[in-house]
Amino acid sequence: MELEKVKKHIRVDHSFEDDLISDYMLWASEEIKDSVSTSETRNEVYFEDSKHYERAVILLVSHYFENRLPMIETELKNLPYGIQSAVQKLRGGYYEKE
Q: Whole-model pTM?
């Protein structure tokens, strides 16, 4: 996923936070993938062209960007709805690498 595309979604038009947003992208990507499978043989190709994966990552990056302080457990219920929906769809179609 491209940094510029994510920045459009989170309405950032400057570059001084690019390193931070890139970190959030990495964290969000791993969080979404780990929510689908933590297997050592995880099928990385499955996520490459998935619109559900892209949506979940962008929504989670947005959440990280807007909520930079640590969250308490009760606040985790306030994650954007679209993240859970996308992860469930990814799980439904997921298959392990052979």
A: 0.81
